[in-house]
Amino acid sequence: MRNSLKSLFSVVFVLLISSSPALWAAELPAPSVAAVAPLPVISQNDLQALQQRLDGLKQQISSANNYNQLEGPQDRVQAFILDVDKLSAALLPQQAQLAVQLSVLGAAPATEVAAEQADIVAQRASLAEQKSKIDASLKSLAALKQSAADLITQIAGIRRSLLESELTLGTHSVLSPHFWSPLVSPTPDDRQRWRFFIAQISETWATVWAPGQRFYTTFLVLLALVIWTFGRRLAERGLTWLCIHRVPEGRLRRSALAFASALATIVTTGLALQLLFYACTRHEPLTPVLETFSEEFEKAVYACVLITGLSRALLSTQHPSWRLPAIADPVALAMKPYPRILSGTLLVLVTLVQVSNSTGMSSQIVVAGRGVISIVVMVIVVSLLLRVGKVRKALVAANDASATGSTFSGVVYTIASISMLVSAIALLTGYISLSRFITYEVVWAYIVLSGFYLLIQVIKDGCEYAFSAKHASGKALKQLLGIGDRRLEQISILLSGFSRAALLLLAVIALFVGGIGTTLGQLATNIMAILGGAGLRKFNIVPAHLLNAVLALMIGIWLIRALRRWLDNEFLPKTDMDPGMCASLSTLFSNIGYAFVILMTLSSLGVQWTNLAWIVSALSVGIGFGLQEIVKNFVSGLILLTERPVKVGDLISISGVEGDIRRINVRATEIQLSDRSIVIVPNSQLISQNLRNVTLGGSAQGVASLELMFPLDIDPEEVKDLLLNTYRENETILDKPASFVRFSKLSPDGITLTVTGYVGSPRIVGVTKSDLLFEILKRLGAAGIALATPPPSSP
To answer: Which residues pair with 758 in a beta bridge?
Structure first.
């Protein structure tokens, strides 16, 4: 804060000097060197410590001889990058502050003309020296970060190579005694490493259990145990009560209860692990071997907790009505004990294998441990599959409707069965690492699919509730956005669909980039490495910009809709423009506004328009082959909205279609016929073809003309007066132009007279002619005048 105030004071100082140099030069005292406090910088020793830390990580990576031994160093390299970023972020404001202060002082003058300028020179030199140190520190930190980033890439390559070599490495079969010999009679070196590990545990425990620390250690261990057991139950009951009493009844409550159960298990286990770690390291840090073991042990614990927590949440054997997946009660009860058995067995066996990895035991004992894990996991999974299959057959035999499973569950059952068969074959043929990889992938697939299934259900039910017109949130959104129930339901479906699609994409990626022992940070890093590839980096799209883009899109659409309602309801009705012009302006405003919102959304994403050249090229090719009609209609629609040769409300006739224009869209125009049906005409036809606009200009009149044939013996003048009087007395016939009767034809069959009058609009011609014809026939009958009878048609 002190440095920020100095910077602000310096900027104000420059502004005031530039506005009134003579006055302020006389009143302000000269700056002194003592006023410049040195800023904290990173010393050379700190940079050397970071370099040594990175060198130690490189040494650990180079000495790794199997795939799992690289997981811990990879996490530590990621932590190293985060620490470097924090230091760089702390130095950047100081660099900016020094740059501002130096710009305030300006460049050094050619000659020193005043004695007080010596202080300014000294101050400038001090600031320049501090800035050079910070620049050098930032440059060194950038080099360290780049080196660490390159090391991450190298680790990925080494892990890929080790994984490929391990999966294709053939050893002894599990039926061979040579496979079990490293476990039954370890080599002296492995025994020595085991004793070394036990000795380090003993030393750490002696430090923790030293006199004066026993009570505190006992308290922390017991507290961790209480949190892990009773705390989990208490947290689960509390979240359950909260969901029942605060979440509305329905599908959202059911999914919230399942999510709360899993969340309580994971959070309480994490707290218990942190307490245990603090109890063991509150005085002295762990040795490198124990630190590596503790990191891998923590990952294994979280994996096992996810198995049990997600299984408890999805099976819900105590509350079947809370169960999310469509699993029959007998099937759920049959599956209930297996997640606990699997997680407990995995925790013990994986912990033992991690001991061999962290202490650097021989590859034979590591492979043997992997084989034991594969055998045990395979036995548990096969037992689960057989038990579930037996229960489902019993339900089918009893004609229970709940026995009918979904296609997805059948696919999962089939894939798990095939995976266990391949794993067994790999064990028998000596490909132990391949078998362990398959069993791990099956367990990892269960964790990923279960976790993302739970998230998808929560998001889906949450969207349905938040956008429901029956609840307070939906009503508030309706009032805020000014939309109806149908549009609100559409928003809910779209948001839910996009969210589920995104989660499914993340689930598919997580299946391939993760595995048992992968932390949430590693998983997020791997996913971002794929989603943030070269293509997205080229467009400068980063996750931090996604929220800005969504907000820009939502706010922009809301503003456009609000402004259009204001135009339609308040502003345009107060003008002298006709309704057609008002509709055209409103439509044009919406089209331009939505285009502007799309541009703003892309800008919020960080899309650089110079990188969109390939999109323009692709569009040009598409326009040349298949989009030219769409583009032609789009351009024609803009011409119709701007030049307005036709407008909404005009009566037009084109290609045998005559009707009123009801709407001019960007691509096509809607024409309503006399029978109230709608004809959609592409805009390009309205521009390129001959079009008759009956009402252009707003002063078009309709012509009501009737042609009648009378016998030869009538009095033409009498008939003429009768017809003219009938037209003149009709309310819809205009006085000007005046109506008239024309002698059209004289033939042996009779006299043909045509009477013509004008009406105010072409739209009422048909109705007017009908009324006139009824009235003329009535008056002709009263006068005893008959119409001529047409001659019979020749055979």
So the answer is: 703
Per residue in 587-603, pLDDT (tens digit) is 778 878 888 888 788 77
Following CA atoms 99, 102, 104, 106 in sequence, which dihedral angle do they give, to the nearest 10 degrees?
-130
* 41 phi-psi bin (left φ>0, alpha ψ -120 to 50, beta other): beta
Q: From CA 295, how far away is CA 517, in angstroms rounded?
A: 10
Q: How many residues does the chain have?
A: 795
Report whether 41 contacts 132 (CB < 8 A). no
User: Which of 418-422, 654-658, 676-680 is predicted with the least confidence, judged by mean pLDDT?
Assistant: 654-658
Instruction: Give me the chain's average pLDDT, please.
Output: 78
Say which amino acid occupies 763.
R
Residue whose C-alpha is closest to residue 166's, from 440, 441, 513, 433: 433
pLDDT value, residue 19: 38
Instruction: Give Cβ neighbours of residue 487 (< 8 Å, ≥ 6 apart).
Output: none
| Per-residue tokens: 193 | 């490493």
Tokens describing residue 212 = 């004066």
Please name which of 361, 346, 235 lies closest in space to residue 299, comparing C-alpha atoms: 346
- The confidence score (pLDDT) of residue 175 equals 86
Close Cβ partners of 777 (under 8 Å, ≥ 6 residues apart): none
Task: Say what the pLDDT of residue 421 is.
Answer: 92
* Cα Rg of the chain (Å, integer): 43
User: Backbone phi, then psi, for 120, in 5-degree steps?
Assistant: -65, -40
What are the tens digits of pLDDT across the range 732-741?
Answer: 888 888 888 8
Would you give the DSSP letter of residue 676?
A: S
Cβ neighbours for 786, distance < 8 A, ≥ 6 positions apart: 710, 711, 780
Select from 298, 296, 250 the least CA-distant residue to 276.
298
pLDDT, position 698: 56
DSSP label of 323: -
For Cα atoms 345, 350, 352, give the angle at the middle one, nearest 5 degrees. 105
Q: Is the pLDDT of residue 44 over 60?
A: yes
Q: Are 760 and 734 in contact (CB under 8 A)?
A: yes
Q: Picking from 30-34, 128-132, 404-408, 611-615, which range would have the lowest pLDDT averaged per residue?
A: 30-34
Q: What is the DSSP letter of 68?
A: G
Largest CA distance in the chain: 142
DSSP tag of 657: E
pLDDT at 65 exceeding the cut of 70: no
pLDDT for 634: 73
- 3-state helix/strand/coil string of 726-776: HHHHCCCECCCCCCEEEEEEEECCEEEEEEEEEECCHHHHHHHHHHHHHHH
Q: Are 519 and 299 in contact (CB under 8 A)?
A: yes
Identify the residue with better confidence: 14 or 700.
Answer: 700
The segment with the largest mean pLDDT, out of 10-24, 100-114, 634-648, 668-682, is 668-682
Instruction: State whether the Cα torsion 133-139-145-150 is positive or negative.
Output: negative
Identity (one letter) of the amino acid at 163? L
Rounded to the nearest 10°, the torsion over CA 315, 319, 322, 326 is 50
Tokens of 394: 């019993």
Give me the helix-helix angle, 543-566 and 472-481, nearest 10°: 60
User: 150-159, 341-350, 522-531, 739-748: which has the highest mean pLDDT?
Assistant: 341-350
Distance CA 125, CA 105 (A): 11
SS3 label, residue 376: helix
Dist CA 671 CA 688 (whole Å)? 17
Give the pLDDT score at 543: 55
